[in-house]
Design a protein that fits this description.
Number of helices: 10
Number of domains: 2
Bound molecules: adenosine monophosphate
Order of helices and strands: EHEHEHEHHHEHEHHHEEE
Structural class: alpha/beta
Strand order of the largest sheet: 1-4-3-2-5-6
Strand content: 15-25%
CATH superfamily of the largest domain: HUPs
Radius of gyration: 19 Å
Shape: globular
CATH class of the largest domain: Alpha Beta
Length: about 280
């Protein structure tokens, strides 16, 4: 099997996309940080259903990690990732170096509000969404893609990206895709590789407790009570819970608008690993 073409510069990426557009083809982009799993590949597959060509980017973005976080330890497996992208049907991998993405003297950032400042991930990772918005804006502009696909796994991030694309009039449609899970419910994540065998056994409780709260809410229980019960189950199992909250599914505001649906979102640490998950309630 021939290898997937790899663009390492913006000029190479644009040459591929220009050729596709000149041939009348539409282009989807799947931005990733690599260490690819079935969740990422589901985005590629959805891209192929919605566009003629799919390009995936692999870039571990330093701007979305705090100095105390896992930028250096983040798994990097380029050869394996390229093989997976090829077999999922992607036509191109964009793998820029740090200097290609952020040239010396880079001095611009995108400031985010709305869903980015609702006191969820932003409360624990204050630098995070500014870094995500900046790199995603660059990737959308660099690639000139027609659509870009993001996972609901990172639900707040998906809303932040949609808001940014609307606000900045970027000519790209953002598509959200359902979370891909292990058979026991654990959401696939590159960071699951950090879990010890014992932690991996406990980790699915995060999703189980989201489902328990959603079930209680649908049965008419008060949110506060159902959420407190789930948090105490998680703490007893060994999690440190950053948040478990019921939010408006579109704005992430604390009081869900019954007309718009609501979402339960959780972040919790298990040993050295920070896990996030979310599910729709209504
Ligand atoms: P990452 O490489 O973690 O930055 O993720 C790249 C993209 O894959 C983001 O849009 C994520 O939301 C998405 N993604 C990560 N894990 C999953 C999953 N389990 N199911 C669906 N999408 C995912």
């Amino acid at each position: 099997m021939s290898e997937i073409p790899v663009a390492r510069t913006i000029a190479e990426l644009r040459a591929h996309v220009r050729a596709w557009h000149q041939a009348g083809q539409t282009v989807a982009l799947v931005p990733t940080m690599g260490a690819l799993h079935r969740g990422h590949l589901a985005l590629v597959e959805e891209g192929l259903r919605r566009a003629d060509q799919v390009a995936a980017s692999i870039f571990v973005n330093p701007k979305q990690f705090a100095p105390t976080e896992d930028f250096d330890a983040y798994p990097r497996r380029e050869a394996d990732d390229l093989a997976k992208l090829k077999s999922a049907g992607a036509a191109l991998a964009f793998v820029p170096g740090g200097g290609e993405m952020y040239a010396a003297g880079f001095a611009t950032a995108i400031a985010v509000g709305g869903p980015a400042t609702q006191g969820l991930e932003d409360r624990f990772r204050p630098h995070f969404f500014g870094g995500v918005a900046t790199v995603v804006a660059k990737l959308l502009i660099q690639s000139q893609c027609d659509i870009a696909l993001f996972g609901e796994k990172d639900y707040q991030q998906l809303l932040v990206v949609k808001q940014m694309v609307r606000d900045l009039d970027l000519p790209c449609r953002i598509i959200g895709c359902p979370t891909v899970r292990e058979a026991d419910g654990l959401a696939l994540s590159s960071r699951n590789a950090y879990l010890t065998a014992e932690e991996r056994r406990i980790a699915p409780m995060l999703h189980q407790q989201l489902q328990a709260v959603a079930g209680a809410l649908r049965a008419g229980k008060a949110p506060g009570e159902a959420i407190e019960a789930a948090i105490s189950v998680l703490i007893t199992a060994g999690f440190s819970v950053d948040y478990l909250e019921l939010r408006d599914a579109e704005t992430l505001a604390p009081e869900p608008d019954p007309g718009r649906g609501s979402r339960l979102l959780v972040a919790a640490r298990l040993g050295k690993t920070r896990l996030i998950d979310n599910i729709a309630v209504y």
